[in-house]
Amino acid sequence: MTKKIAVLAGDGIGPEIMAQALKVLTAMKLPLEFEESLVGGVAYAAYGHPLPESCIKLAKESDAVLFGAVGDFKYDTLERHLRPEQAILGLRKALGLFVNLRPAVCFPELTAASSLKPELVAGLDLLLIRELTGDVYFGQPRGKRISPDGQFAGAEEGYDTMRYAVPEVERIAHVAFKAAMGRKKHLVSVDKANVLETSQLWRDTMIEVSKQYPEVTLEHMYVDNAAMQLVKAPKRIDVMVTGNLFGDILSDEAAMLTGSIGMLASAALNDKGQGLYEPSHGSAPDIAGKNIANPLAQILSAAMMLRYSLGMEQESCAIENAVKKVLSQGYRTGDIWSEGCKKVSCSEMGDAVIAALK
Ligand code: NAD
Question: What does pTM read for this prediction?
Answer without folding.
Answer: 0.90
